[in-house]
């Protein structure tokens, strides 16, 4: 295993990981090329190479991928599902993802109205993952507080194109994965498939998933390439549900009784097809493409949800990097289209079976974003950066079940999101940056309030969430140490938050004024070296850590005053200490620490509990064909709360908590050729 630098300043890819048999793919950047691109952003960004997690963890959830990216809070709930928040995004989204836009090879995973799920993410399939925090995701057309995460698959021109891996471990976890690839003249192709199943730590949490991703590329010339993508998933997952704090801490394996009685599940089938074409002319590069997604969600919960999604769209982008009047100038401009429909039907849930039809609607969403960003280097190593994005979005619902009234309606949004910043390349390894940016998050069909004792607020009355974020930071990468430090503050108007509840469910509407501010710190360093082995390839003890400080609050709210926003810890630390021998052996402990409980309701009456988890891993990875690992998690078998849903007003009996898994051991091996 390579010594792990912080994800915001990853270890530089080497020939062992990035070499290619012949010319590289034009449509799929190497990790080194992608790192160079992402580091031209004057704000919080990260690139996580697959080598940072793939060969040394089960790599079963997005938490394994993003655990060492400061500013990211990713906690597993059950199966593949994870509570993901970046800089406090989507805190009120108790189900599905909100506030972060997910992409696969630059192609949207989220639905057209903004929802996202992690069941379509296969951490074994990617060569690297890019994280753009907040307004730094302008180039994707991202319009949310959390920004964007882009998962990038290999091409047939990467080294070690073929491989197979096997992972097994606690709670019945097992996964078999294989990939094959190659290049022949102008053609290349890559395909990966995995089958995974788990019994789950908690009752009623067993699940399985089968996933396939692939692409085929054709080079008309070294400067002209097109690539076709396929992604397909079949996921079947039981849901154990949230429980009371007492149950989570004293009977952590128990499922919520209603979830068992109704056999609650989240089952998803998806197929995604896409094309991306890249053409390069001297200093200018054009990228364009189109995509279509067919998704079927079969979701027995309090009702039996049967949703069919059809999303489609396209994108075009131009990057021009040249000298103008003796000064370097880099211009990026583009357009993104994401449209879709949801055939929405909800039935009575009778012990996990469909009952009578209770609601039906056809929901349509359209999103068109146009963006431009220019970086002008008025000094050889200092760039002034300015840009803007314009978003036109519509939401239209046609209610087809009028027995409970007509919920039809339509909304339209036209939003500008400007951005300005500075990027200072202090030396080839060290950057400083500052920026101010705006993000505009359009509400989805799920934002509304309706129920006994609360005001009825239709989705057409929900306003977009507008944030202005100020950010300053620095990052450095050198052979034996690396670090990143960022401070930010986001002043938010109309944040999408839970202000009302009925039957224990959160109703998301607009708050008045709130703010999110924090510090994101990542570091990696060889704190000891030349212990037993000296010379050009010594042994090392490598420290890697990611610390996040969160301060999220209401701002003189008439109901909640200056209370803390619920749903995220104020302090979150991940750290590991690894001994690394030059032959490829590594071993060492790690810790996950939440030293202070956080609130789960806006009234600040109920909290989680602080916790510290101890882990240990060992393995072999010298960058060659074979690697293997064994990892122990929560070795002290600590009972803890991994994540929580949030509500406006909680009591001691509020069922809001997701217990974390107990002591677990995983092992795996991988062979590549």
Main traits of this protein?
673 residues; mainly beta; Maltoporin, Chain A; 22-stranded antiparallel beta barrel; five-stranded mixed sheet; 5 helices; 33 strands; globular; disordered N terminus
What does this structure look like?
Residues 1-16 have a biased composition (Low complexity). It comes from Bradyrhizobium yuanmingense. It holds the Pfam family TonB_dep_Rec_b-barrel. The protein has 673 residues and is mainly beta. The chain has a single domain, classed as TonB-dependent receptor, beta-barrel domain (Maltoporin, Chain A, Beta Barrel). The chain is built from five helices and 33 strands. It has helices at residues 15-18, 31-38, 62-66, 245-250, 257-261, and strands at residues 45-49, 72-78, 81-86, 101-104, 107-108, 128-133, 147-152, 163-169, 173-184, 187-198, 207-221, 224-238, 265-281, 284-300, 303-324, 327-350, 353-379, 382-399, 409-427, 430-441, 465-478, 481-493, 496-502, 505-510, 513-529, 540-554, 571-580, 585-594, 611-621, 626-633, 641-644, 657-659, 664-672. The protein has a 22-stranded antiparallel β-barrel. A five-stranded mixed sheet has the order 1-6-7-4-5, with helices on one face. A two-stranded antiparallel sheet has the order 2-3. Strand 17 (353-379) and strand 18 form a beta hairpin. The longest helix has 8 residues, at 31-38. The protein is globular.
């Amino acid at each position: 295993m390579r010594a792990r630098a912080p994800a915001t300043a990853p270890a530089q890819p080497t020939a062992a990981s990035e070499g290619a048999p012949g010319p590289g793919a034009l449509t799929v950047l190497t990790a080194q090329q992608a790192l160079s691109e992402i580091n031209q952003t004057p704000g919080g960004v990260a690139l996580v190479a697959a080598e940072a997690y793939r060969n040394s963890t089960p790599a079963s959830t997005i938490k394994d991928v993003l655990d060492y990216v400061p500013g990211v809070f990713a906690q597993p709930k059950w199966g593949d599902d994870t509570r993901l928040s970046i800089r406090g995004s989507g805190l009120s989204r108790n189900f599905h993802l909100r506030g972060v836009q997910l992409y696969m090879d630059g192609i949207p995973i989220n639905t057209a109205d903004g929802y996202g799920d992690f069941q379509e993410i296969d951490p074994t399939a990617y060569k690297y993952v890019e994280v753009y925090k907040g307004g730094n995701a302008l180039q994707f057309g991202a319009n949310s507080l959390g920004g964007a995460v882009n998962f990038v698959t290999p091409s047939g021109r990467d080294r070690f194109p073929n491989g197979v891996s096997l992972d097994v471990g606690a709670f019945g976890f097992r996964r078999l994965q294989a990939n094959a690839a190659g290049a022949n003249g102008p053609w290349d192709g890559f395909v990966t498939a995995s089958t995974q199943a788990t019994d789950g730590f908690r009752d009623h949490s067993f699940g399985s998933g089968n996933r396939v991703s692939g692409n085929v590329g054709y080079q008309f010339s070294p400067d002209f390439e097109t690539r076709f993508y396929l992604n397909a998933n079949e996921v079947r997952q039981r849901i154990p549900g949230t429980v009371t704090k007492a149950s989570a801490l004293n009977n952590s394996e128990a499922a919520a009784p209603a979830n068992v009685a109704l056999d609650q599940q989240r089952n998803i089938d998806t197929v995604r097809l896409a094309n991306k074409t890249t053409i390069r002319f001297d200093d200018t590069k054009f990228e364009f493409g189109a995509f279509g997604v067919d998704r079927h969600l079969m979701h027995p919960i309090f009702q039996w949800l049967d949703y069919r999604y059809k999303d489609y769209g396209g994108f075009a982008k131009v990057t021009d990097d040249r000298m103008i009047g003796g000064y370097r100038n880099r211009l990026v401009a583009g357009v993104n289209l994401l449209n879709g429909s949801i055939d929405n039907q909800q039935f009575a849930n009778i012990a996990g079976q469909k009952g009578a039809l209770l609601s039906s609607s056809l929901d349509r969403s359209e999103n068109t974003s146009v963006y431009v960003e220019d970086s002008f280097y008025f000094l050889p190593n200092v760039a002034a950066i300015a840009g803007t994005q314009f978003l036109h979005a519509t939401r239209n619902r046609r209610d087809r079940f009028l027995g409970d009234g007509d919920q039809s309606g339509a909304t339209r949004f036209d939003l500008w999101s400007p951005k300005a910043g500075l990027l200072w390349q202090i030396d080839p390894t060290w950057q400083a940056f500052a920026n101010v940016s705006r993000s505009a998050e359009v509400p989805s069909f799920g934002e509304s309030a309706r129920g006994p004792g609360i005001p009825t607020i239709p989705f057409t009355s929900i306003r977009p969430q507008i944030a202005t974020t100020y950010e300053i930071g620095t990052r450095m990468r050198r052979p034996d140490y690396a670090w990143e430090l960022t401070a930010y503050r986001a002043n938010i108007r109309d944040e999408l938050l839970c202000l009302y509840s009925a039957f224990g469910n959160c109703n998301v509407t607009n708050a008045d004024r709130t703010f999110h501010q924090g510090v994101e710190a990542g570091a990696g360093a060889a704190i000891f070296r030349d212990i037993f082995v000296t010379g050009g390839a010594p042994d090392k003890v490598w420290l890697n850590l990611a610390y996040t400080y969160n301060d999220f609050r209401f701002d003189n709210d008439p109901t909640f005053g200056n209370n803390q926003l619920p749903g995220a810890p104020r302090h979150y630390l991940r750290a590991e200490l690894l001994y690394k021998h030059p032959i490829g052996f590594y071993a060492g402990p790690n810790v996950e620490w939440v030293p202070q409980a956080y609130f789960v309701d806006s009234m600040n009456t109920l909290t989680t509990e602080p916790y510290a988890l101890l882990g240990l891993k060992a393995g072999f990875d010298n960058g060659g064909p074979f690697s293997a690992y064994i990892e122990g998690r929560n070795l002290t078998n600590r009972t803890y709360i991994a994540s929580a849903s949030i509500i406006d007003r909680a009591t001691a009996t509020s069922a809001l908590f997701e217990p974390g898994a107990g002591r677990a051991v995983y092992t795996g091996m991988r062979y590549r050729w």
